[in-house]
Write a structure and sequence with these properties.
about 300 residues, alpha/beta, 5-stranded parallel sheet, binds NADP nicotinamide-adenine-dinucleotide phosphate
């Protein structure tokens, strides 16, 4: 039996793993993909304290992983397919085995929200993208559209100006949601064309993106923006498939509710990072969640 299983190797999971390993809990961290989570899709992180020059998302998470492993954390590449959770017993079923654990921390994160419009599904990977770091270099000297007005859309639009000849930032209101500093940068960026009060209604093309149809929400006018790439950054949905049909408390958007100690409504099961219902989803808040969850899990194990 494990003391602690952590599911998901983003910043929250790796931090929980670091704390649990230092507490000498017999811990395993399971990750179906490469360790890192969402932050791997971020080119440059400049608001994680302690790195005044900033660093890449890859480097930050690689440092976190090495630090946790230095204290003995085992990170295993296994996909969890089912959870069996009762107040008395916690069993994690992977594609290879069933692992019983005294406590469990869920750090499965979130994934980019889709627009749900015609052409989007057909053209994913053929011009429709949710990751500028991954796909930006394909659009050298081409025009692209970025959809969204939050921090992600603005940061990624700025990143795309390194490659694209013009980045059309399409936002559904006439004011950006992004942090003021990012707003200032994007408004000053020569290669960014801001398109206000507009939503995409259709992505055009068959073998590749040829354009995006936009609707002005004030005038109801339709127009076509000829672009070769469409980058969608309209927020995130919780990666909660594993939790369906289990008696967790969820918020209205499907994120898991916890108490201040990161404990969910199921005893001995904790949640940390982007999967958790909370106000601010950042690397810095994920690592705080992860540390608290590991500490609370240790207390739970001691008490049982
Ligand atoms: P977000 O803050 O939820 O913003 C989503 C944006 O997409 C909003 O501007 C929203 O418009 C728009 N939107 C939502 N649904 C839409 C739809 N169906 N059609 C068109 N537009 C739609 O998401 P995010 O930018 O991904 O950020 C998520 C979290 O990560 C935030 O807490 C953010 O601060 C954080 N983050 C931080 C950094 C950083 O600190 N450097 C970087 C990236 C992300 P409205 O504004 O009208 O709602």
């Amino acid at each position: 039996m494990e003391d602690l299983i952590i599911i998901g190797a983003g910043p929250a999971g790796l931090t929980a793993g670091l704390y649990a390993s230092r507490a000498r809990l017999k811990t395993v961290l399971l990750e179906k993909l490469a360790p890192g989570g969402q932050i791997l899709t971020t080119d440059f992180v400049e608001n994680y304290p302690g790195f005044p020059e900033g660093l890449s998302g890859f480097e930050l998470v690689d440092r976190m992983k090495r630090q946790a492993e230095n204290f003995g954390l085992k990170v295993e590449g296994k996909e969890v397919i089912r959870l069996e959770l009762t107040p008395e017993k916690r069993v994690v079923h992977t594609n290879k085995e069933a692992l019983e654990t005294k406590a469990l921390i869920l750090t499965t994160g979130a994934s980019p929200r889709k627009l749900g419009i015609e052409g989007e599904g057909l053209l994913i990977g053929k011009g429709v993208s949710y990751c500028a770091t991954c796909d930006g270099p394909f659009y050298r000297d081409q025009e692209v559209a970025v959809i969204g007005g939050g921090d992600t859309a603005v940061e990624e639009a700025l990143f795309l100006t390194k490659f694209a000849s013009c980045v059309h930032l399409v936002h559904r209101r006439d004011e950006l949601r992004a942090t003021k500093l990012l707003q200032e940068r994007v408004i000053a960026a020569e290669k960014v064309n801001l398109i206000w009060d507009s939503v995409p209604t259709r992505i055009l093309g068959q073998a590749g993106v040829e354009g995006v149809e936009l609707r002005n929400v004030k005038t109801e006018e339709l127009s076509t923006l000829p672009v070769e790439g469409v980058f969608v950054f309209i927020g995130y949905d919780p990666s909660n498939d594993l939790l369906a049909d289990l008696p967790f408390d969820f918020d209205d958007f499907g994120f898991v509710k916890t108490d201040d100690n990161m404990e969910t409504s199921i005893p001995g099961v904790f949640a940390a990072g982007d999967i958790r219902s909370k106000m601010l989803r950042q690397v810095s808040t994920a690592v705080g969640d992860g540390a608290t969850a590991a500490f609370a899990a240790e207390r739970f194990i001691e008490g049982h």
